Amino acid sequence: MNLRTYQERAAKTDRNPSTDSGDQKAMMIPLLGLAGEAGELLSEYKKYLRDGESHQLFRERFAEELGDMLWYLTNVATKFGLDLAAVAEQNLAKCEQRFGRSTSVVFDADFPEKERLPRQLQLDFNTIHDENNRPRLMVYYKGKPFGNALTDNAYEGDGYRFHDVFHLAFAAVLGWSPITRSLLERKRRSKQEVDEVEDGGRAKAIEEGISALIFAYAKDYGWLKGKASVSSELLRIIKSMTAHLEVSRCSTGDWENAIIQGFAVWREIKKRGGGTLMIDLDQRTLTIKEG
Predict the structure, then answer these.
(1) Is 139 helix (H, G, I), strand (E, B) or coil?
(2) Residue 268 is inside which H or E element, if any?
(3) In the 8-state DSSP scheme, what is residue 140?
(4) In the predicted model, what is the mean pLDDT of residues 153-180?
């Protein structure tokens, strides 16, 4: 049976069939029923944990509670004018974006070599101190400064001066970082529109905004230590911010990977006060060089 057929047949057994949003009884009964059936499902599993194999009707009762949940879930969809089959398709698309196969995109493949991001990069992060003994970070690529000396730009040090790691994580995992491209002088000037839209000031501002956003998020979650995921809401905001850019082709799973890898390296760089980063766009990784 397909979901659309099930939804149509389930609607015929609804004792409160009104779809008027002002009819609180008709709207609330399936919502409360869904919550109640979730409790019943958990109760059956509790009995199984308690009684083990002696709970011989476990699978039958569990299946029955699942069916009741499905009915109420379907009824909620019907009450709010939603096609359950379409909801299922949208959910699968979201899950495949997040947990399916990673997107492999090379955004500058058709550009001259001098306008492409190098496939492998090695950068040195070194902490220096100014005349007031305040820490500043200098990043070097091939012995030359990779941008300016950075401070945390905060009243209390929080390690934001190491945030170039995030731009490099975006470059490594997503193949996208207007800021990294600019600092490496790899802007795609051979195509004016691409140069302006993808590599220009607005795209760089968006990338800096994302960097600040994930930093604020991670601060509330122990800098993501021991975590392998971030919230769906964070990823939704990032996808919205980049919807008009080429990086929109990357999945939420790719963004999550970039954020998790980036903070793993950021934590270690912050702890050491520096280090050498190895960035591999082919393997979509960034690591700290040992020794």
Answers:
(1) strand
(2) helix 252-272
(3) E
(4) 95
The whole model's pTM is what? Answer: 0.84
String of DSSP letters for 76-136 = HHHHTT--HHHHHHHHHHHHHHHHSPPP---TTTTS-GGGSPPSEEEEEEEEEE-TT--EE
Selecting from 1.10.472.80, 2.115.10.20, 1.10.287.1080, 2.60.40.1120, what CATH number does the domain 3-99 have? Answer: 1.10.287.1080
Mean confidence (pLDDT) of the chain: 93
The answer for residues whose C-beta is within 8 angstroms of residue 142's C-beta and 6 or more apart is: none
pLDDT above 90 (res 261)? yes
Per-residue burial over 109-146, b = 16 or more CB atoms within 10 Å of its CB, e = otherwise: eebeeebbbeeebebbbebeeeeeeebebbbebeeeeb
Residue 226 has pLDDT above 80, yes or no: yes
Q: Are 179 and 208 in contact (CB under 8 A)?
A: yes
Lookup: tokens for 25: 């009884």
Instruction: Write down the pLDDT at residue 291.
Output: 65
**Quick check: 110 pLDDT over 80?**
yes
